[in-house]
Amino acid sequence: TRWNFVFDSLKIIQKLGYDLISTQDPFVAGLAGVFAKFLRHKKLNIQIHNDFFKLKYFRQESLQNYIFYWLGKFNLFFADSIRIVNKRLLTDKRCFVAPVAADLEFFWNKPHTKKYGQIVTVARLSKQKNLPLFFELAKEFPKLKFIVVGEGEERKNLEKILPENVYLVGQKNRNEIKEIFKKSDIFVLTSNYEGWGIVCLEALASGLPVVMSDTGCAREINVVIGKDIKMFAETIKNLLNNSVKSKKLVLDGQKILKEKYSQEKLGSQFIKGLKNTI
């Protein structure tokens, strides 16, 4: 089980020399980090890659998430620094912002000019991604194909409410995702909460206009924010009918990606935050 991770980690850590430990999440890994901090009296950095604490959705999804919510709160109390992936996750002066870097060059493409009649999302099949909203959106455009790339624990439940024009195509590697992006018109993300939403940057880099819920990177990159089914539907309709607007949205967004979100720049931000912790 993942709880054995704590003990296994500590066995490994005892054999290592270190000045700083950074944990990938604030939960079980975070607990291992807290023990490691006091084991040798070193600094602890905890990373937060999702909106686990400010929004209600995460802790309401399951009993495990509710327990993790309070475990994370406990572990964060002992952190010397906290790596967050967007400004809206800011809690106190220990935080530094270092978004997750995407391989933008791999996906890079010009704004799409040809229409394919296809809307795409890349999302784990989980409650977090709010795919029923994506399905309701598909019903508003019965002549379009709606593609869902991803797998997850909610597949059986989603299959029960699957509209005819929605296709669950399963897990794909990034080469396959790149090809799907090339044959799509718009990327949509309907998540209840996100930390960053790296796939939105990849979609934008590939030349797709992005419409997403007001979460994660929505206020950091050039996307259209949707708040409900009506707003999502109106935005998609406008983008499909206005190629000039769609192209400008992509070009302005790609300019931001180049200026702020290269792998080198974001890697440097993370390393700088860790150095300041020591």
Structure description:
By secondary structure, the protein is an alpha/beta fold. 44% of the residues lie in helices and 15% in strands. The chain has helices at residues 4-13, 28-40, 57-60, 63-76, 104-107, 131-140, 155-159, 174-182, 198-205, 229-241, 243-260, 263-277, and strands at 20-23, 43-48, 81-84, 95-97, 118-122, 145-149, 166-170, 186-189, 210-213, 224-226. It has a six-stranded parallel beta sheet with strand order 7-6-5-8-9-10, sandwiched between helices. Helix 1 packs parallel to helix 2 (28-40) and helix 2 (28-40) runs parallel beside helix 4. The mean pLDDT is 95.
Pattern of helices and strands:
HEHEHHEEHEHEHEHEHEEHHH
Global morphology? globular
The main β sheet shows up as: 6 strands, parallel
Which structural category do the helix and sheet elements fall into? alpha/beta
Figure out the total of helices.
Answer: 12
Q: Give the fraction of residues assigned to helices.
A: 40-55%
Gyration radius (Cα, Å) is: 20 Å
> How many β-strand runs?
10
Spatial order of strands in the largest sheet: 7-6-5-8-9-10
Task: Give the mean pLDDT.
Answer: 95
The proportion of strand residues reads 15-25%
The N- and C-terminal alpha carbons lie at a distance of 32 Å
Low-confidence spans: none
